[in-house]
Amino acid sequence: MTLAIVLAADPAAGLTTGDGQRLVDRLVAQWRQAGASDVRVAADLTELAALVAGATGPVLVSGADLVAHTAVLKHLATSPVGPTVALVLTDPPAPGQVPVREERGQVVAVGDPEGATGVFGGALRVGPADLPALAAAAEAAAGSVPGEPATASPWSPVDRLFADLAACGTPAFAHRVRLLVARRVGSPAEASAAKAAVAAVDEDKAELRLSVKERDDFFTTFFVSTWSPYVTKAAARIGLGPTAVTMISVAFAVAAAVLFGVGGRPALVAGAVLLYLGFVLDCVDGQLARYTRHFSAWGGWLDTMADRAKEYLVYAGLGYGATHAGFRYGWALAIAAMTLQTVRHMTDTWYGVLHDEAARRPRPAPGAAGGIGGKLNAASTKVQSDTGSVSYWLKRTVVFPIGERWALMALAAALFGPLVALWAVLVWGTLAFAYTGALRTLRARWMRVPVMETVDTTLHRDDGPLARTLPAGRDVLGLAVFGALGAVVLLIVALRAVHQGGALRGWVVPAGLLLLLVGAFGARAAHRGPLDWLVPAALRAGEYLFAIAVGVAGRAPAWLIFGYVFVLTLHHYDLTARLEKRQSAPPLHAATVGWEGRSVLLTIASIAGITTIGLATIGTYLLVVFVASVVLAWVVLPARARRMPVPVGGGDRSPG
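Above: the chain's sequence. Below: its structure in token form.
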């Protein structure tokens, strides 16, 4: 149940528009249209605090001086960015307005005009977990702004409420108004002018344009988003949901992979066309969710997982096609591309978490902003703000985002064949990894944010029982990198032995395992280093390379090695998707026995001479556990929670 409260403790509460409608009555009707289950008018902040105390779901709050499109309120009410979201207007701060500073979508400063990026728009949504803080902020704001007498404050009651909510440490995300109209008014003339501005905008057309991401990559912006909104509109009209579009996109990618595997110019060209259309639909599912405001944790998780599964299935099709065309190492290139891309994504995810955490913390002092890391940070911020410039698009393209990857695969496969497509992905991906890795490392050293301490380290390291029993080491990143390098050495030795037609000695794989397990000594250590956000990626690289080396040494089929690593990537993407979507750990995570446990089992299979059987058995087991965990997390447990009665006077206070 969603409660909306219009705070009428403001001189604007009595204002009317040109047609005589009071702003308070207009807002009450709009909140209902925006999806609020219950709408109340609070005479003052004390009454608002009492209403909040009895709420069990999200609470929407607005002042009485807001004139806006109903879509603006609906977007605020349904925003998926976080549990607590504030309406932010991009107007320059003026007397009586609350300046805010936004970084990476988060409100990081309230009330400080220095560095302000906008002003508070007079409305916010507060998630269930933050309702006690909202009630406390309402009681505090009923007296004054912190440190000031109430008579000295130029801010309205809703502004004081938001300032006190921010002062108590409640994190808020920003919902900026684009294309639509939202204005705060103080006179009948301003109210009438604002209503006329609202009427002058085609609300549905604006919402369709807003469904496209404000900032996207070069290929997506100019070769997809120019026409994908028409597909989005058509999908909405025929009743397709975002999940259905995601599934159609998966089908297109699978068909493209099959055609790439078949080979022959007609099949390759058809596969390229299907891959492009599949990517268009991959963009449409998100646009459709934004256009229809149908967001869910399940949909976000599925979209993330489907993106990676589609891409890696295409790699499999290219690998099979290259092998079928006579190139001996087609599958090897596909395995390398998948491993490289997954490790890259692990660094992308954790650098994003690091950057978000850094944005929440106070800015470094001016004297601390020197050095190459600070200069790179300033340069990057400047480039990102200069949208449309050559340097902006070059930076967006050189990092090899998904649109550019899919476009390169489609063009290279259609024009030159699967082998060239795989090589192109590997070369550009390696260069992009080197570029982003070097710059992010320098910036992270300057930021000095121990982000791994803010999460469940054991979960996101994917440690098993063995790692948790080992004594704690010191340099956790050094230990993880050492283990990955041990896997690299084992892989090189295995590849050399296979190339020369020989076999590895029985002690080589166990020795490689011992080197890999060095990384496990960091499981119980504190992850406080400025670069420890790289630990998950290093552990992923170590496990994948070790599994590949064991498969190569045991002469396992290349497609089976690919399949085993593919299942591992599903497991690890599940963890990162849950991190990004703020979801709890997979229900059956303990059954996956950890990266070190799986590596030990593979070593036992290698020693026993049943590497192929070991890869197939462990891979199948992990896939079954993954599917069962998905069913439990997204079907069984939610259904059970819905059947449980809510205690009278209580309720779930967990985040949305």
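The chain has three domains: 3-210, 215-229+246-283+306-449, 454-645.
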